[in-house]
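User: Can you predict the 3D structure for this chain?
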Amino acid sequence: MNRFFIKTYGCQMNERDSEAVAALLRARGYRMVANEHDCDILLLNTCSVRDAAEQKAIGKAANVAGQRRKNPDFILGILGCMAQNRGTELLDRLPDVDLIVGTQKFHQVPDYLDNLRAAQSAGVPLSQPIVDIAEEAGSQNTIRDHVLEEKQVSAFVSIQQGCNMDCSFCIVPKTRGDERSRPMDQIVRECGQLAERGVKEITLLGQIVTSYGRRDYEHTGGITPFVQLLERVNAIPGLQRIRFTSPHPRGFKEDLIAAYSRLEKLCEYVHLPLQSGSNRILRAMNRPYTRERYRQIVDDLRTAQPGMYFSTDVIVGFPGETEEDFAKTRELFEACNYDMAYVFKYSIRTGTPAATLEDQVPEEVKEARNQILLKILVQNSARRNAALVGTTQEVLVEGPDKKGLGFTGRTRGNRVVHFAASERLVGELVPIRIERVSTAVLYGSLELAGVST
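Assistant: Here is the predicted structure, written as C-alpha cells:
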C-alpha cells in the first residue's frame, strides 16, 4: 500500500531532488519500486524550463489519473518546478491530483503522504487536495539525503538553489526563488560521507553553481567561496573526481580558471552556457557578458588545461534574432569547437519578459537554425572523438552497459566509453585504449597488465 515511484522530468537538479525525496520516504517506511505500474503512490517531479516539458508532465498525469478512480488507495502527486509555477491552477486540468508540492517543500512530502494515508484509513475524504508552494527559509539545506545503489560510483550534491540572474527568457527565478547557498561545512561533510560509502565522483549542483556563497563567505586571498569549496572537496580522501553544473560565464574569474590547472580531482570538462553569440541578443536576454568576453573565457580555460572538453546551451530564434545575429552565433559556436551542446528553439514562457517581446521568429526559421548548429556539433564531436583513437584514457568504471554486452564508464572529459571488464573493477579508475569511436561514444579495451576482463 505504501509503494512509491518517482518519475523525474528535466535537469540534474530535479534528479537530485527526487533522490532526496526518495531517501526521506524510505526512512519513513515507504517502499520504492522500480516500475511505476507496481506503485500505490506516483510522484511526478516536473520541469518548467520549456512549455513542452510542462505539457509532457500534464499529459502523463492525465493518463494515470484514472488509476485513482480504479484504486481508491492510489495517490498521485506533482512536485517541483511546474507545481511551483502553476500551483492550484493545475487542479482545473487535473482534478484527480492529490498532492501539489513546490520546489522549497520537498522535505514535507513524507508528512503530506502520511496525512493522505491517514485520511484514507479513516475513511475521511479530503475537502481538497494538498497544495504547498510557499517559500521556506533554509529549504536549500534539506536536499542532503541520498539513495545509493550497490557499488554506485558517482553522486550529485546540491550546494545552492535559486537564481538572481533574471535572464529575460527564463522561468527559473520564479520556480526556484532567490539564490540560497548551503553551509560549506555541511556540503563537505556530505561529500566525505559519500566518499566513505564508495562514491568516487561527485557533481556539485546549483542553478548558478559558480555564485555559491557569494553573500555568505568572504573572498580569501582572491579566492571566491565556490573555489574555496572546490579546494575542500578536492582534499577529501577516497574521492577521485569533481564536476559541477550549471555555471554562468560571469563566474569564471581568474581563481576558477586557475583551479583547473592546480586541483587534480577537478575534471577537465566545463559546461559553459553561451545562449547567443550576438551581443545585441545577449543584451536582450539580459545576459551580462559579451561574445568577446565569452571567447576569452574559453581561450583562458584551454590555456589552463589544454585537454579541456566543453559543452554549452544555445537558444536559437530568440525574439528579434536576425540572420546577422544568428551568423554571429554560428561563428562563435564553430570557433569554440564544442564537444557537446544543448541547442534549443526559443519557446515562449508566460511570465518572463521575453514572452511579450515583438518580432517573434517563425517556427520554420528556428528549426532551420537549430539544424545548422546540430550539424556543426556532430562534425565537431566526431572530429574530437576520432582524435582519441589510439590514445589511452583514464576511465572510471561505472558498471555493466544497458545491453549487458560489457561495461561502461566515463573519461575525465565526460566521454562515455564501452569496453570488456569484470565486475570487480566497478568503481576503479582504469586505463582504456580507444580502438574505435562513434559520434557520441568511445570503444576500447583495458590496458592493464595482469587484469582479467
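The mean pLDDT is 94. The longest strand covers residues 392-400.
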